[in-house]
Amino acid sequence: MPKTILYESQELFGFMTDFYKDEEGDFYMTRRQLAQCLGYVDDDGIRRIHERHKKFLEKHSRYIFVKVPRYKNTENQMGTICPRQSNEPNNDEGLQTLDYQRKKTYLYDEEGIYFIAMKSDQPIALEFTMRVAEILKQLRKGYQVWLLTREKGKEARRTLTDAIRDNVPDSPHKKFMYKNYTDLVYKLVTGKNTKQLKQQYGEPLRDKLPCALLQHLEKMEGAVKALTELGYNYE
Description:
- The protein is α+β, with helices and mostly antiparallel strands and about 240 residues long.
- The protein contains eight helices and seven strands.
- Strand 5 and strand 6 form a beta hairpin.
- Helix 4 (about 110-120) packs antiparallel against helix 5 (about 125-165) and helix 6 packs across helix 8.
């Protein structure tokens, strides 16, 4: 099963809605947010549609486990314990995170999303379908641009490593220069080194970076390559 990651969040009917993407470029929505946007009180309505049309929707859904924070309960002004509700706004003021728990989250692909909207008979279903179709159209355009940028970046990276190989004097420490030059490029563009960026974006790093940042890195690696070939050292 292709790996699925959170790709982008967009406003949809007053809710910030997450769109996930797999390695094959297909997009998904979660069951909970699908229910939310269609006007259900909770996701039980989507679950019932899934059960009635299980044979079809099993082909157009999957589930992943995501990390969600587990919070301490808080007290209200009357001294009553008030547990955090799953549908409350994400306002964590006064709450302390104990740790994270893994939560099973159902995802539906584009066909599954449209099918559920059609079967829901919700008044907003047609408008919802049209809005989602437009959002996914724009996301796919952006993804194609990202793919082209990523491929250009791979070539820029290759020519930089070739320049280091051919122009940096041999020494027992030369093998570390590839990492040093990589960190140099990252620091010049973002102010952070490789380790810090991996903590922020995840791994593999270049596959997680946004298009604009990849474009900046490509230009900087081209500049560092040119200076290296002119005889400039790391310093």
